[in-house]
Amino acid sequence: YSTHTGFCRIFATATLQSSDRSLYGLCSKITIDSVHNITIMAFDSQSSNSPIITCISPVGLWFSNSTSVTITNIAINNCSNHGNTLGALTFLNISGTLALDSITVTNSNGRGMIMNKVEMVEIQKCLFTSNSNGGIEMVDIQEISIEGCSFTHNTAKYGRGEGGGLKIKAWSSTCPILSLTHSNFTNNTALYGGGLLIDIQCGNMTVSNSHFSYNTVQRLGGGIRVRITNGTGYPNFTFIQSTFENNTVLGEDTLGGEQPAGGGVYMYLTGLGSILSVGSISCFTSFLLNCRLT
Asked: Cα separation of 221 and 254, whole Å?
C-alpha cells in the first residue's frame, strides 16, 4: 500500500519523513485508513524549524480506523476537510495512543483538529492559532493529556460556536480523564467557552498552571464554560494555580432567556442551574486552588 501526494509517500510501514525544511504544497486530501503504528515526523525532530504543509485547495489529512499514531514537529497551514465542518487534521476511531509533539496548526477553514473516538490523546508543545472554527474538538476521548500548548486567536463561529480554543465533549458511555497543564488560551472567541468548553456527564478533569486571558464569548464562559448533563455520576473538576484575566462576556442573550455570565469560569449542571460563575464556588467536587480571577 502506498499513496503518492506530490510531496511525500506514505507506505504500509507508516513512516513519513522529510529532510528538506521547506514549504510543501498539498493539492489533494491524504487519507490513512486501517494502518497500524503510524509515525509522521520531520527528519530532525529536535530542530525548531518544522516543515510547513500548506494546502493549495480545501483539503487536509484524515486518519481513521488505525492504531497508535505519532506526529512530530510539522506545521499545517490553510487546510480543511469537508469545508468548515471538520478539521485540517481529522482522527476517527483510533485505538492506542494518538501522540502529537511540536505541531503547529494555523489558518484552517474549520477546526484546526478534530478527534472522535480516540482511546488516548497526548499533546505537548503544540500551537493552534487563527483557525476559523476553533483550535481542537475532541469527542468521546477516554484519556487526554495536554501540556505546554498554546491556543491563540481561534474563532468558533460555525455550528453551535463552542470552544474557541478547545472543545471537549463526551456522551454517557465515555467518562474522560483530562490533564491540562502549563498551557495558554489567549484571544479566542466563541458563543460558548471562549478559551475552553467542556460538555460531559462524568469523568475527572484537572487544569493546572494554565493561563486564560482576553478570551471572548457572546453568551457563557469567557475563559472556560463547563456544561454537565445528567448522567450516572458527577465529574470531578480541579483548577490549580491557574489564572483567568480579562476574559469577557459580550452580553448577548442566550436561547431560552438564560442570561450571559461567567467572564472567567462558568459551570452549569442540567437540572440544578449555575453552580460556578466567575469566582464564586458552591458545588460538589470542583475546586479552585491557588487560582486568580480578574
From this structure: 12
Quick one: pLDDT band at residue 210, thresholds 50, 70, 90?
Answer: very high
By the 8 A CB rule, do 113 and 135 touch? yes
Query: In one letter, which amino acid is 213?
Result: S
Pairing relationship of beta strands 15-18 and 75-77 according to DSSP bridges: unpaired
Which SS3 state, helix, strand or coil, does residue 256 take? helix
Give tens-digit pLDDT for 41-57: 876 545 556 788 888 87
Question: pLDDT grade, residue 15 (50/70/90)?
Answer: very low
Residue 272 contacts by C-beta under 8 Å, 6 or more apart in sequence? none
For 89, counting Cβ atoms within 10 Å of its Cβ (0-12 exposed, 13-18 middle, 19+ buried), the class is buried
Residues sharing a CB contact under 8 Å with residue 119, sequence separation 6 or more, in sequence order: 94, 95, 96, 97, 98, 141, 142, 143
Q: Which residue matches cell numbers 469560569?
A: 265
* Alpha-carbon distance values, 75 to 38, 97, 103, 199 (Å): 17, 20, 6, 29
Q: Give the span between the Cα atoms of 281 and 267, in whole angstroms.
A: 10
94 closest CA partner among 124, 111, 70:
70
pTM of the predicted model, to two decimals? 0.84
Which CA distances in Å does 31 have to 40, 106, 109, 151?
Answer: 13, 20, 18, 26
